[in-house]
């Protein structure tokens, strides 16, 4: 087990190796209903997520505090997925457990005309997290090799060059002290159909439904192929991909929480030392 497993007791085994995209990886072989490293059911996940949230919140506060003392490290969580895969739930239920002052969340939409006049990474660089902060990208620069490939918005040669550009960009980030955690939440076509149907059956979910989601469903095989290529071409030692089975939302949340806790644990964080004399300050406070 990894460093995390010594802290979180509810995992039966560290799933990181199972989730990481390594050479020979096949997206089609991933069981979207599986729960690597966790033998419990949904009812058990509630308490597990609560315990994990306490650990994550403690680590994130220590991480942020360190930046006030000169620690320049950052974390970037990249969330990619087909529609309805649960990115919003990850932001609310996992990242939402942390102190918001240490979180930078940005949801990338279709690029504007101004953004299209620049290199495709230009708008991404503007949203990168600063020292001591955890940046969360809800969709990301990977849209520029996913939807553009499926919809044939650019020549294949242009898209092919972007994989190398992305690898160089992410290596630059890691060299600058950023831990990059790239997550694909992987659901089945049947599960997505069920989730879209629920949105149409519930008035409180209408706002989440987008007719365009059905249009994208018609390109499901092409998207799976585009993800496979992107995962193969851009899962590197510096910035590996993790594919998380997401038919069970509760498992996806636990797994992403796991990755964040593991990354922070490996930093061997500590609280900043006081830069003042504690005894003197206690005396001054008593006398005030």
SSE layout:
Blueprint: H1 16-19, H2 42-67, E1 74-81, H3 87-93, E2 103-107, H4 113-116, H5 122-125, E3 134-138, H6 143-150, H7 156-175, E4 178-186, H8 189-201, H9 211-217, H10 220-234, E5 241-245, H11 249-266, H12 278-287
Parallel strand pairs: 1-3, 1-4, 2-3, 4-5
Which oligomerization state do the chains in this entry correspond to? single chain
Secondary-structure class: alpha/beta
Q: What's the tally of helices?
A: 12
Low-confidence stretches: 1-6
What is the share of helical residues? 40-55%
Widest beta sheet: strand line-up: 2-3-1-4-5
Largest sheet: 5 strands, parallel
Spell the H/E element sequence. Answer: HHEHEHHEHHEHHHEHH
Radius of gyration: 20 Å
Mean pLDDT: 95
Shape: globular
Number of strands: 5
Distance between the termini: 51 Å
Strand content: 5-15%
Care to describe what's here?
By secondary structure, the protein is of the alpha/beta class. The chain has helices spanning 16-19, 42-67, 87-93, 113-116, 122-125, 143-150, 156-175, 189-201, 211-217, 220-234, 249-266, 278-287, and strands spanning 74-81, 103-107, 134-138, 178-186, 241-245. Strands 2-3-1-4-5 form a five-stranded parallel sheet, with helices on both faces. The protein starts with 15 loop residues before the first helix and ends with a helix. Residues 1-6 have low confidence and may be disordered.
Describe the structure concisely for a colleague.
The chain is of the alpha/beta class.
Keywords:
single chain, 288 residues, alpha/beta, 5-stranded parallel β-sheet
């Amino acid at each position: 087990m990894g460093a995390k497993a010594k802290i979180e007791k509810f995992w039966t085994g560290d799933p990181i190796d199972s989730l990481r995209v390594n050479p020979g990886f096949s997206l089609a072989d991933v069981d979207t209903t599986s729960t690597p490293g966790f033998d419990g059911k949904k009812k058990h996940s509630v308490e597990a997520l609560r315990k994990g949230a306490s650990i994550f919140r403690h680590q994130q506060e220590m991480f942020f505090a360190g930046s006030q003392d000169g620690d320049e490290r950052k974390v970037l969580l990249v969330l990619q997925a087909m529609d309805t895969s649960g990115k919003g739930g990850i932001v609310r239920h996992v990242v939402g457990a942390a102190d918001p002052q240490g979180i930078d969340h940005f949801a990338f939409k279709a690029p504007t005309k101004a953004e299209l006049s620049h290199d495709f990474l230009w708008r991404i660089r503007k949203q990168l997290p600063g020292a001591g902060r955890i940046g969360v990208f809800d969709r990301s620069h990977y849209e520029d090799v996913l939807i553009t490939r499926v919809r044939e918005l650019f020549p294949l040669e242009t898209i092919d060059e972007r994989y190398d550009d992305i690898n160089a960009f992410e290596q630059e980030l890691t060299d600058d002290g950023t831990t990059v955690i790239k997550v694909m939440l992987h659901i089945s076509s049947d599960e997505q159909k069920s989730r879209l149907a629920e949105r149409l059956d519930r008035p409180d979910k209408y706002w989440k439904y987008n007719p365009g989601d059905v249009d994208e469903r018609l390109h499901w095989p092409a998207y799976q192929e585009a993800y496979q290529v992107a995962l193969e071409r851009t899962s590197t030692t510096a910035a590996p991909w993790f594919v998380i089975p997401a038919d069970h939302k509760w498992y996806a949340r636990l797994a992403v929480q796991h990755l964040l806790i593991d990354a922070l644990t490996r930093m061997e964080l500590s609280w900043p030392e006081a830069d003042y004399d504690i005894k003197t300050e206690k005396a001054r406070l008593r006398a005030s």
